[in-house]
Every structure is written in structure tokens, then in C-alpha cells.
Amino acid sequence: xxxxxxxxxxxxxxxxLLERAALDGQTRLKVxxxxxxxxxxxxxxMVSTCNRTEIYADVEKFHPGVAxxxxxxxxxxxxxxxxxxxxxxxxxxxxxxQHLFSVTCGLDSMVVGEGQILGQVxxxxxxxxxxxTIGRVLNDLGQRALRVGKRAHTETHLDHAGADMVGLGLVVxxxxxxxxxxxxxxxxxxxxxESADAPARCPMGGNEALAEPTADVAAAVPQPQVLTxxxxxxxxxxxxxxxxxxxxxxxGASTVIVAxxxxxxxxxxAECLTEAYEPIQSHAVPFEDAAGLLHEVxxxxxxxxxxxLVLTRAEVESALERKSCGRPLxxxxxxxxxxxxxxxxxxxxxxxxxxxxxxxxxAEGADAASGRxxxxxxxxxxxxxxxxxxxAVRRAEQVAPTVVALRSKAREVVDTELSRLEGRLPDLDxxxxxxxxxxxxxxxxxxLHQPTVRVKELAAGPDGxxxxxxxxxxxxxxxxxxxxxxxxxxSAQSTAGETK
Length: 500
Prior knowledge:
By secondary structure, this protein is α/β, with parallel strands linked by helices. It contains 17 helices and 11 strands. The chain has helices at 15-21, 25-36, 62-77, 81-87, 94-105, 116-131, 136-156, 158-161, 165-173, 217-220, 239-250, 263-276, 313-320, 355-364, 373-424, 430-459, 465-475, and strands spanning 2-9, 41-49, 52-59, 89-92, 231-235, 255-260, 281-286, 299-302, 329-333, 350-353, 497-499. 46% of the residues are buried.
């Protein structure tokens, strides 16, 4: 059994392919269940964000595991195996662990250091637990990844040094704001807003309970007022949409309208904004009424998770006929699949910024990361240290079944010899027989104690599997034989490799 990672991300896949790979919630759960039922696969965890879809699995063997996962993923997404093979990456064992830790720390994000990914990985683990596709191996790995991510952000403040997807999106969209467009691509680091700085009552993720409001939140978190007077429509009320609403409020927007299919959630978000950013005007509207408000706003931010278009060209053109001022209408589409019809780019006075634009902007602004290169280097060191520690624990666990098998074999030898002794000395009284048996077991336990402790220590180091193999060979052990392994011990893996 070994850890395997198969994925598509912004680093090597076109947005059109990422859109096809983005599965809705129910389909994602179904796919995970089918993968976990494959003969070569034991456990499955799927991480899906606006710029990546990754499957982590505990597999029996490498090649059958890759085949099972890619074939099922191809079937459900409609992506041919040829296209999947061309763009996907595959990591195995140590490299798979390293990749998950790097992803959770934000090192592999489009905007390096963004903090949203930590919550997204947490939600992926919860989904897998709910579906029953995650077991001891991936649950331990996932929980360790969350701890690594928290440690990286706590010790380096990497998320404070850089922007997030929303901040980067507003920088790029700001080029089209006219009087609002003072931000430049080299200001990426100054326009981000971390979820940790959001108002305490804001529903930033999942169904978490709302905390009490924080006083003077807006004053406590200064932001460049690049959106002063702007009127903003936010489509959706999930974590990314809530982050977007808070960011534009901090940057001086005068009005924030929230539209969501669950009206109560939109109303809660609007209420949070009103309380935290006075004198901002914020209110919720039914989702189906959003298109009718396009002529009243300057900026539309959309991240709904819908599988089809939320706004079409016809709806945008109709809205522009009623738009009185000469300001442009700017769309920031953070969704995958896209929410906004690409054809709106052909409409005069309309500007659309989507994931593809953000990817290009992130590449152009790569030099902006130079100011936080020290933090990035420290996070990489943290990942390397945590991977080594995780692998050491796994190697130590790998030898446990062999140690159990050795002790089981020793018990069998003692029991056999006691039976022979009883046959030779049938008149031995029970007390003497018990003392003899106890003495024999103590001798065996003492003889085995130091070697078994030492082999566990050696197994945690490099090439530790060789000690476990030597123990099996010397004593002719079968750790996988029925009864040889106790329920508290599980097998682990230590070999590593990578393929593309």
C-alpha cells in the first residue's frame, strides 16, 4: 500500500481542461466512492479548487492504482485518456506527500502563499470522511498536511506577505476601472485580503458557527482605497465570495450587493458587511434578480460553483441598455467552470477578467514574490522537515507487523516446548508448570526486547525497510499471515518516486 497523487492544475493545464475536470459536489463524492471500490485502491481523497483538481489515493501498487484512477476520472469528466496523460502529473510515495504539504502551505498556488487552500483541503477531508472513502492512511496524511499548513503560515506569515486570488483579481480588474484603476500589477502584494482578517461574524467557510462581531474591524485592517465609491455585485456567498465582499469593502466600495441561491446566506453576509464597514450600503437580493441589477453596478464578482453559465451575453447587453453613466462594467469571474459568458468581451464598455487572465498576471508578477522569497524559502524548509518526519513515522510503522509476527512466532515456540515438557513430565504439579512457563516467556521477552526496539529505531531512518526485510529473512516471518498482525498495527510505505 502506497500514497499516490494524480492531478491537473494551473501549472500545466489550460483553463478549458480545468473546467472539464471540475466536478460538482455530488458527482465528486460519487467518483471518489467508485475509485475507492477499485481493486487496486484502498482510500481516496479529492482536492478541488478554482485552479486544481487532485486525487490522492492509498493504492496497493503503482501502475494498477494510476490506471484505476485515471480511467474513472476520464469516464466521469469526458476528458480523454490521451489529454489526461498529456497534462496530468503523478506523484508517488514521498513525492506525493511532499506535494500535498506544499499545496496546503500555498507554495503551489497560482498566488503563492494564499491562505484559502488550507480551508479547501480541510473541506476535502471532511467530504472524504462523510463519503467513507478515507481511512487511516489518508486521514493521518491529511491531518498532518493541515498541521504543516498552519505551521507554515504561523511561523512565516507567508499569507500576509502576499496576495490571494481575490486581491490579484482586483488588481487585474483595476486596469479597467477608469477612476478607480490606480492599482498596478506590481502592487499584488498590497491588495490581498486574507480570510484570517475578515470580520469575525462573516461566514467565511462552510457551516461554521458565527462568532461575535469585531469592533472597528475596517479601521484595524487598513486597505488601499482603490475602489472608493464603486458599486459592486457579488454572486455567491461561499468562502471565496465572502472574501471578495470583504476585500472590496475594505478598498472603499460604497455599495455591495450579494446574490446567492440560498438567500439567507446572502443576507447574513450583507449584514456582516454593514456592521463591519459602516457607512457601506450592503443588502442581499434573490439570485434570479441579479441580472436585472447589472446596470446599477461597476464591478461584478462571481464565484458560484455552478456547472453552467450564470450570466449570458444577452443578459449583459440588456443591462447595458439601461446603464446611464459612462463607466465601464467590469466582471471578475473567479469560478471554475466559468460563470460569465466569454462572449461578453465583445460588448463595448464591458471587461471580463477570469482565471486565465489571473494565471497570466501571476506569471507577469512573479518578480513581486521577490520581497517574500525569504518566507517562501522557510516554508520549503518546513515542508522538507515535515516530510522527513512523516516518512520516518511511516517506516517505523512498517516494521510493526514484522515485530508482531516475530513475537507471535516466539510464543508458538514456547507453547510447543511447554507441551513437550508436559508430555515428558506428566506428574508436574500446576504451580511448578506455571512457574516454568512464566520463566520461559520472560526469557524470550527479554531476548527479543532490545532487538525489536532497535529495529524500530533503525527502520525510521534512511533505508529502514532493509532492516525489516532482514528480520523477515532471518526468522522466516510472514507478517501478513492471518493472526500475525494485531488490529492496532497497520502497514505503511516508504519507497518514493515520481512519474509524469
